[in-house]
């Protein structure tokens, strides 16, 4: 397995310093090729004082090196206890129950580029998304001081977590589409970070860090009722070249892709079944050698029932690159369920809420492939084309908008945008439109998350 993040980020920076890229799609339906984008004691951060987020005009570009209005770091920040939902003041909170299913949702994007060469973007941006409509820009951006590669909301939608590529993890209080405040931040062990998973109760998160050293693996972080973050240093799970993590239903086990290494100490196993340890952290249950060559994975996908695992491999250095493999998950066993599917440049996997549709983003092919689940088999049915450099995806899973999907996109005509389509039935999808984000490299979207 090769470390994917550094290569992908280097290629993304080279391809996306300007908005117009060779081979990007002209719009929906264009099939042109594109370039790849871009248990133990806890440690609390010093935190930041809560204040209003930095704001720019709708669709505007923040100036290079613009400072946030979030204030300077404050000392003595406290962290909430994750046990029983009790905060540091003895009060309780519920971060696991979603809000009204048809309320206006917040869509959050990150921007990881600027118009200044070799200067990363460190902004997150909020959009409002009303039922049955396309998302709308709020004009709000918050400078979080890190190049954010993954975003996630807690189930209640009260807080969002922003994970930087170098290990900065930031908590943001979300009190509406135009009211986002940074609360706290911590720094995780040195690695390249691209995946983030939130527990069902919203009180614990896991960040996946990849390198070939002892700092690679899973970091466990608790989220307090007040948004404070606490790193459980003793719960760190070291595994080299970790790439993606999914929790099984019930929240007591997880599947981790990572660990395969052709160098000393040699490890042929690429997939791990883990058990969560009470109080934080993981222990290994079983390891599997499911691939024979290198892997480059954006995000693996697990069915809502937890019985089918889908793994994409877009590695250009692997004889198995361009394949998507499907595995059954039964007890402590993970086994192949279908011959590998040929899906070049497959990056991330997303299941529909009913588990009958599987979406696979394809960045270099500028589209999202759609599959129908038939038993333990996936059948290709259609594609949503014209989504430039499609990689990360986020889906509404409740209410009237259930099945609607947003995908960050970069097109040469119209530039950066957020594409929207809907899963309309098993293996069926309908393109609905896109929100233009503005011109300039600092408008290029990277990570995306939608309030539950």
Can you describe what's shown?
- This protein has 452 residues and is mainly beta.
- The chain has one domain: YVTN repeat-like/Quinoprotein amine dehydrogenase (Methylamine Dehydrogenase, Chain H), CATH 2.130.10.10.
- Helices cover 3% and strands 42% of the residues.
- The protein has one helix and 31 strands.
- It has one helix spanning 4-16, and strands at 42-44, 105-111, 123-129, 136-143, 148-153, 159-164, 168-174, 180-187, 192-198, 204-210, 217-223, 229-232, 237-238, 244-247, 253-257, 271-276, 282-288, 301-302, 308-313, 323-330, 333-336, 341-342, 346-351, 357-362, 367-374, 377-385, 394-395, 404-411, 415-425, 428-436, 445-450.
- The strands form seven sheets. Strands 1, 9, 10, 11, 12 and 13 form a six-stranded antiparallel beta sheet that branches. Strands 18, 19, 20, 21 and 22 form a five-stranded antiparallel beta sheet that branches. The chain has a four-stranded antiparallel beta sheet with strand order 4-3-2-31, with no helix packed on it.
- Strand 5 and strand 6 (159-164) form a beta hairpin.
- The radius of gyration is 20 Å and the shape is globular.
- The two termini are 33 Å apart.
- Mean pLDDT is 84; it is low at 1-40 and 44-91.
Give a quick rundown of the structure.
Mean pLDDT is about 85; it is low at about 1-40 and about 45-90. The chain contains 1 helix and 31 strands.
In CATH, the homologous superfamily goes by the name YVTN repeat-like/Quinoprotein amine dehydrogenase
- The structure class reads mainly beta
State the end-to-end distance.
Answer: 33 Å
CATH C-level class: Mainly Beta
* Rg from Cα: 20 Å
Sheet having the most strands: 6 strands, antiparallel
Estimate the mean pLDDT confidence: 84
Query: How many helices?
Result: 1
Number of domains: 1
Q: Examine the secondary-structure arrangement and name the CATH architecture.
A: 7 Propeller
Quaternary state reads: single chain
Strand content of the residues, in percent?
A: 35-45%
> What is the molecular shape?
globular
Tell me the helix content.
under 10%
Task: Tell me the CATH topology.
Answer: Methylamine Dehydrogenase, Chain H
Stretches with pLDDT under 50, minimum 5 residues: 1-40, 44-91
Total number of strands? 31
